[in-house]
């Protein structure tokens, strides 16, 4: 197969991403499945309305029946007719630390998932393939936990104030200097919540008259932040550099929509690893485009910090690029560091500006001290500054686990999306019934997975998402792979035709439309 | 399944008809309907064809032009609540390939039905009336129009 690699000269390492196309038969059967579910949904709604069947949902009171309805009950159609049937695969209560193995409360439902009762039994030792525990720092023993416990007894659990008032601890300053050193930037600032980092800081950076170019599959926090800012948002195809370049050219040539004035700022929003697809952003090309068209880059490394790169410094190190090229480096402490919160790193002027103008800094409570200590200890461990090689070993273990797991799953014949090096592994299920069946069968075999379906994914691309961890030993992975193999045979999930193209550039076409700006 | 409902696609309903395999499933569905009708021993061939045409158009009218809104909650504060699925397709952009496909397919079915009913007057009236109910709402001039306020809210 003659395959032209676009801009291959910018990459210092092979970039292997593949999104195998849905087999046509599977797509047709998926639509048939959704069609049957829709028809049965209408039938059940009809029966519920005419009181042939008991309605388990909340309904209006008798006195309010003549008023204009508060909610449109068609919007709940999917929820009550599809989601309710397989609801037991989500919101499972866990009762231990979500490390490589986790304990779950067992629950049963006697009325087809409308209500759950707990049997009281605890399922112990379930292999956890769903937590974002990339470096295995979600532990209840170890140096991080001891340091956090010491800080807890010293500082207490709460801060009771915002950063700008009396909530700025010396621990926060220490953390921010450490984060800046870790990332290789001049300065950094940490916030208590990862979602709030995105949604509260993008409005501080851009406003009306600015342009935001955001990837198709960006997270809700980035989308919300972009909307709250009031800037114009244009969406480019996922990881598609031709689409991004076209948008940049159009923006610079045509300017703002009616007045044709130049844009005040152009900000490109991308993520390091996209957790739904398992794909890694094409950072060398994005940076080249950014420099050529003089725009700014906001990189959200929520899933990639700690998980990529030879020493865990994220996607910038993975590609061997200069951290100063990325204007705003954002990330979260939730995934690889086993804590909570987010950070933004960049030039000193930028961070000083954010300290004054960001909503999170002014109004949100600052981070809790034990959490800060957990991050400090785990970051020092990753950097090797605590005197051991535990951090480096963990990063290497994660990379080995990723390669091994992905290779074995591909050999078994499943369709796996995403880049070969990403620790997020989406396994395609496609049909709605298989979503519920996969979740339940894996739980029966003592493995906890996260399954996702429409509308979080496109209608035919429902998937199960595995998140690998450095805490998974090879034996655990082998057990999990054996069970996945069994379930794959049972549910006939091995769709792959092994026609893997090494670098599948999705062709850029004009045939999707987006919402026009108001 | 709101796990990570976190992408820029505000209303997935707009893209459903463009997804891979949807057109093929639709054609196979109509074919299956026709075969089922042909298998019923009491129906003559012209009757089966007229029934296919009428039932197909009735189904298309109900699902594309009568039912409004989305069966799931969208993050756009209900911009599409008062729009039928046809009006939601591709965010209201006219003459996209899905729209053309779904406009042409009832016409093709009508041609086939007229041929197989040997242009009999009763069948002709039925088929034409049913074709018109499904073609007129698709005109771009009728985007968002509710005649006599029927189906407005």
UniProtKB/TrEMBL annotation, chain A:
One cellular-component annotation, GO: serine palmitoyltransferase complex
Pathway(s) the chain acts in: Lipid metabolism; sphingolipid metabolism; Sphingolipid metabolism
SUPFAM superfamilies listed in its UniProt record: PLP-dependent transferases
Membrane topology: Single-pass membrane protein
Ranges of residues in domain Aminotransferase class I/classII large: 125-484
Domain of life: Eukaryota
BP terms from Gene Ontology: ceramide biosynthetic process; sphingosine biosynthetic process
Assigned EC number: 2.3.1.50
InterPro entries xref list: Aminotrans_II_pyridoxalP_BS, Aminotransferase_I/II_large, AON_synthase_class-II, PyrdxlP-dep_Trfase, PyrdxlP-dep_Trfase_major, PyrdxlP-dep_Trfase_small
Subcellular compartments: Endoplasmic reticulum membrane
Membrane-spanning residues: 24-43
Swiss-Prot/TrEMBL cofactor(s): pyridoxal 5'-phosphate
GO MF annotations in UniProt: pyridoxal phosphate binding; serine C-palmitoyltransferase activity
Keywords, sorted A to Z: Acyltransferase, Endoplasmic reticulum, Lipid metabolism, Membrane, Pyridoxal phosphate, Sphingolipid metabolism, Transferase, Transmembrane, Transmembrane helix
Pfam family, one: Aminotran_1_2
Family statement: Belongs to the class-II pyridoxal-phosphate-dependent aminotransferase family.
Protein name: serine C-palmitoyltransferase
TrEMBL record, chain B:
InterPro entries: ORMDL
Keyword Membrane annotated: yes
Regions that span the bilayer: 23-43, 101-117
Cellular-component GO terms for this entry: endoplasmic reticulum membrane
Annotated protein name in UniProt: ORML1 protein
Keyword terms of this UniProt record: Membrane, Transmembrane, Transmembrane helix
Subunit-structure text: Ceramide-sensitive subunit of the serine palmitoyltransferase (SPT) complex, which is also composed of SPTLC1, SPTLC2/3 and SPTSSA/B.
Membrane topology category: Multi-pass membrane protein
Main location: membrane
Keyword Lyase: no
Species: Crotophaga sulcirostris (Groove-billed ani)
Lineage: Eukaryota, Metazoa, Chordata, Craniata, Vertebrata
Pfam family, any one: ORMDL
Function statement: Plays an essential role in the homeostatic regulation of sphingolipid de novo biosynthesis by modulating the activity of the serine palmitoyltransferase (SPT) in response to ceramide levels. When complexed to SPT, the binding of ceramides to its N-terminus stabilizes a conformation that block SPT substrate entry, hence preventing SPT catalytic activity. Through this mechanism, maintains ceramide levels at sufficient concentrations for the production of complex sphingolipids, but which prevents the accumulation of ceramides to levels that trigger apoptosis.
Subcellular localization(s) per the UniProt record: Membrane
GO terms (BP aspect): regulation of ceramide biosynthetic process; sphingolipid metabolic process
Family (UniProt): Belongs to the ORM family.
